[in-house]
Amino acid sequence: xxxxxxxxxxxxxxxxxxxxxxxxxxxVVRNYSKGQSVVLPGELIYKIVYVLSGRLSINFLNExxxxxxxxxxxxxxxxxxxxxxxxxxxxVIAEENSTIxxxxxxxxxxxxxxxxxxLSDFITNYSSKCGYFMRESxxxxxxNPSVRVLRxxxxxxxxxxxxxxxxxxxxxxxxxxxxxxxTGVHFVTISRIFGFLKKENILYKTTSKITVIDxxxxxxxxxxWMEF
DNA sequence: CCATTAATATATA
DNA sequence: TATATATTAATGG
Length: 228
Description:
Blueprint: E1 28-32, E2 37-39, E3 47-53, E4 56-61, E5 67-73, E6 78-81, E7 89-94, E8 98-104, H1 105-114, H2 116-142, H3 145-160, E9 162-164, E10 167-171, H4 176-183, H5 187-199, E11 203-206, E12 209-212, H6 215-224
Helix pairs in contact: 1-2, 3-6, 4-5
The chain binds a DNA duplex (13 and 13 nucleotides) through residues 144-146, 175-177, 185-192, 194-195, 207, 227.
């Protein structure tokens, strides 16, 4: 039975390569504490960084000090440092206390030969990542900042919202700062948007949950705030 | 730590 | 030039 390649909205929980954890004896396992660098900017390790527990962030750095969060690697996913690009500084940071397994290209390809399912899942993971970044570039080009945030909230509600007593609940731990990093919208602007949505009784957010009171109004706002 | 608000600057249609 | 968004700084939960 073929699974569909899900459409990812947030840059985490990419397609898991679960069976790779059966082969960690072939790699190198290490623990990192929260905040610790796993791969330093410019460091060449030629390995994949597979997450067993915890969470990593993968950040791209520019010469002028600016940086952009690219994605989070949650358990059973990986940060790929097999094929480093020239002039591109990547910083991999442990966002939580994390246990990581490093695999070299040789080790990984040996596993692929032994277990085609791992190879299949590995490629599917790449595909889901690729889908996310294609979506992100589309959003950046087609929509202005506020509309991007509204569209993100709307799609989160459609894909993971659970209907509870006349409202939708999205069980997700997502700070305003995280939304800011994901959408490229300034955190003060994010705060203002949430303030407005709450005032208008459209939606409100707590630490672990987003509650959508008026999904229709949210959809209308997307059009109202869009420029033609 | 994370979120809010105000004042001001910059960017964009 | 009007509006949207970013920046900075100050403050509160």
